[in-house]
Design goal:
It comes from Mesorhizobium hawassense. Keywords: Lyase, Pyridoxal phosphate. By secondary structure, this protein is α/β, with parallel strands linked by helices. The chain folds into two domains: 2-73 and 208-396, Rossmann fold, CATH 3.40.50.1100; 79-191, Rossmann fold (3-Layer(aba) Sandwich). The protein is built from 17 helices and eleven strands. A seven-stranded mixed β-sheet has the order 1-10-9-8-11-3-2, sandwiched between helices. A four-stranded parallel β-sheet has the order 6-5-4-7, sandwiched between helices. Helix 7 (151-158) links the parallel strand 5 and strand 6. The chain is globular and about 60 Å long.
Length: 400
Amino acid sequence: MFLLNRHPDHRRPLTEEDAATLGLAEAAEAERFLAARDNRAETPLHALPALAGELGIGALHIKDEGKRLGLGSFKALGGAYAVMHLVLEEAARRLGRVVDVAELHSHEVKAVAAGMTFACATDGNHGRSVAQGAGLVGARSIIFVHSGVSDERVAAIARFGAEMVRIAGDYDQSVREAARVADERGWTVVSDTSWPGYERIPGLVMQGYTVIVREALKRLAQPPTHVFLQAGVGGFAAAVAGHLAIVLGEDRPKAVVVEPARAACLYETAKAGRPVAIEHSKPTVMAMLECYEPSLVAWRVLSRIGDAFMTVDEEDAVAVMNRLARPSGDDPAIVSGESGGAGLAGLIRAAGDRKMRAALGLDTASRVLIVNSEGATDPGRYAELVGMAPDEVTREKQPA
């Protein structure tokens, strides 16, 4: 399915609130917080000229978030950043002065953090980030997971000291349960989706993601003309597209939002012209994108700067995992999890369709940016779908 954005707000400026959340000062702050963390190395930006040639475009770059902060996903930038921010704010309130990120590990701040509990729902990656952030500052974390989250992903979160709560149902039900229990017990919810009356903390999570854009633009000789962004509730797509629009203005790339056909809440929202919750379908292999209600903040941004919305099928996602693991020519091998390559799957589908190419202006001069949003966060599942273990993939393309 493919849909150009016909919303009345399309191409209108971001709201003042969203422009502030995703603006230059806030992005610089996110980078400053990142600098205070261990394992903070910039993630690589890969050029894939062979694949670009096959797709009939001028250039293709993939920002690989598969090793971000040792968590295996771009979400390492969001939940942990929000937790750190909230702890410093609470410390400032109690101490009666501004508290800088450089004081994060001070006795005074640690004492404040020790009395705080952070909760969230997750498909896997966001919960790992919140748990890591809580562990970093010495706070408690309670992570809610639904029945579809694999035991491997649950164990990966628990390794950061989180208390795990498994519930029946899907992601959206786990979001509601986390919010309900947190409200009863006085915990702070750090969600990557938003709802009426709850926007600021998801905005902080999105703020963390702007680091991806800042790093990519520093490495690109020319800014991209197109960006294909995978979406679950839409926070990642909105953050990346929104910051690109703020930095590049009229020269911003066309932003294409890509979702699994089995969980296309933003596509249906764009079609309806307003936020809608969709009916649950069969589980998708793109488990990190299996969401049935959009984030209100994300939709507010994407209604303005999302230029098109499209879906990809199960086999498209698996094909991309295999294509990146076994590249052509001198393209690098990239380990991409089930959800990580959905943006690329969208590009491949669009590039192969005459009408979509024309609608998006994809041609031999196009410069496309993709974000591989996760590595093999479930190594067993990755090996099953690709036929190689993650370390075999990267080893095969190393020079002799």
